[in-house]
Amino acid sequence: MARLLTGYYRFLIRYRRTALGPLWLIVGPSLFIAVLGLLFSEIGATEPKTLVPHLAIGLVLWTLFQSFVTGSATVYQRGRAQIMQGAQTRQDIVAVDIVTTFLAFLHQIPIIIAVLIIYSVALTWAALESLAGLALIVANGVWLTQTFGILGARYRDLVEIFQALMRIAFLATPIVWMPSPGAQGGVMGTFLIFNPFYHFIEIVRAPLLGNPVAALSWIVVVSITVVGFIVARIMSARYARFIPLWI
Question: Does the predicted TM-score (pTM) go above 0.85?
Answer without folding.
Answer: yes
